[in-house]
Amino acid sequence: MLSLKIVAVGDRNVGKRCLLRSYVDGQFPNDDVKNVSNGYKKDIEFLGKSIRLVLWDINVEEENARLRHLTYPLTDLFLLCFSLVDQNSMDNIEKIWHREITRHCPHTPFILVGTKSDLLDNNMLSSHGRCSGCVRTKAEELCKRIHAFKYVECSSLIRDGLDNVFSVGLHSICSTQTPNGDENEEEQKEVKNCVLM
């Protein structure tokens, strides 16, 4: 069975651990997710292949900041996570998380994940008074600036978009397209030797 390592990065309280737990367990976690392991496994079928996803939530505590890059080697995919209702977490994708993963794993694909979409849709305004459409437009612009493969949204609470996060992520691992679906032939990436294809 093929094993793929997927690492979720982003600020504290953006919902990384709930995203992973809801996807693995099939329901929103009822326990205190802060007191649970950082690693999870889920066996899936994708493109006719059996795959074991090994999912990691990176500890963002200040005292671990200098050590967290030690978790990055052999990562197959990064999920750059931010909360749709927390502008600072979106800003830190570019300031902290994108820089960190591209410095340590420059050839590893990554997608941009907006979490807590249920809160944005329910409130229609983010915590900073921005409309949901404005937040989504800013997220799409960020996706292009950092050359993420794609931007996706999800809600761990209502389990909306979780399967799509991982489907898009797995497609990014084997994609022959440039980031964001740019189909310019001159900029096509070299096809990866990917066993999923």
UniProtKB/TrEMBL annotation:
- Give the residue spans that cross the bilayer: none
GO CC terms in record:
membrane
GO molecular-function terms, A-Z: GTP binding; GTPase activity
Enumerate the subcellular locations listed in this protein's record, separating them with semicolons. Answer: Membrane
Protein known as: Uncharacterized protein
Protein species of origin: Mytilus edulis (Blue mussel)
Q: Which domain of life is it from?
A: Eukaryota
Coarse class of the primary localization is: membrane
Fetch the InterPro entries from UniProt.
P-loop_NTPase (IPR027417), Small_GTP-bd (IPR005225), Small_GTPase (IPR001806), Small_GTPase_Rho (IPR003578)
Kindly give the SUPFAM superfamilies that the UniProt entry links to this protein: P-loop containing nucleoside triphosphate hydrolases
Is Acetylation among this UniProt entry's keywords?
no
Q: Name one Pfam family in it.
A: Ras
Q: Which NCBIfam families match?
A: small_GTP
Concerning PANTHER family, the annotation shows: RHO FAMILY GTPASE (PTHR24072)
**What Gene Ontology terms for biological process does this UniProt record contain?**
small GTPase-mediated signal transduction
GTP-binding found in the keyword field = yes
For this UniProt record, the keywords arranged alphabetically read as follows: GTP-binding, Membrane, Nucleotide-binding
